[in-house]
Amino acid sequence: MSIDVNNESGTEVDEQAILDIARYALARMRIHPLSELSVIVVDADAMEQLHIQWMDLPGPTDVMSFPMDELRPPGKDDDEPPQGLLGDIVLCPEVAAKQGAEADTQHTMDEELQLLTVHGVLHLLGYDHEEPDEKAEMFGLQAAIVDGWRQEKGLSGPSPAPTVS
Predict the structure, then answer these.
(1) For 54-80, how does the pLDDT look when each residue is reduced to its tens digit (9 = 90+)?
(2) Please, are residues 149 and 21 in contact by the beta-carbon 8 Å criterion?
(3) Eight-state DSSP code of residue 161
């Protein structure tokens, strides 16, 4: 799995944890090990520009995903998952810090960025949360992946509750 993390935000973030949880999520979703992913960490101004440009919405957001090859998790009968370029995930630590502090189960910026990384991966794989049934599926899968990764890493306590919109 080729995953690049590029921090352009000026904020210190746990890049290794972002890399590790992205790799875990992709493995858990049975994505081909030769697939490629890029994670870019940007400041609020850059995220706001992307949010306006691509979503026509004001202000910065927490995470945006830009799929490339539209890879999907393989079905149960598929022998081999296809390989390709997954795309880009863009994270904003300023928004993540605020969301983590305001969440029902307060957590750190880095914990929020880990959650947002999984959220971004799922969007790249075609998951969405526009409809209630889609939201239940995506957020359930997101929680299972974050919890599994945290258990594997020996991190204590429950994973952060979803705060993404």
Answers:
(1) 999 999 999 999 998 666 665 666 566
(2) yes
(3) P
Signed CA dihedral, 120, 92, 64, 89: sign only: negative
Residues whose CB is less than 8 angstroms from the CB of residue 26 and which lie 6 or more positions away in sequence, other chains included = 1, 3, 35, 37, 86, 121
Instruction: Return the residue matching tokens 């960490």.
Output: 41
Q: Alpha helices of the chain — where are they, by DSSP H?
A: 15-28, 44-55, 93-102, 109-124, 132-153
CA distances from 134 to 27, 35, 80, 119 (A): 22, 25, 26, 13
State phi, psi for 36 to the nearest 5 degrees. Answer: -125, 145
Question: What amino acid occupies position 24?
Answer: Y
Q: How many CB atoms lie within 10 A of CB 24?
A: 22
Nearest Cα neighbor of 89 from 69, 118, 52, 110 is 118
- The two three-digit tokens of residue 35, written as one number: 């697939």
pTM: 0.88
108 class by beta-carbon count within 10 Å (0-12 exposed, 13-18 middle, 19+ buried): middle
| H helices present in 67-131, as ranges | 93-102, 109-124
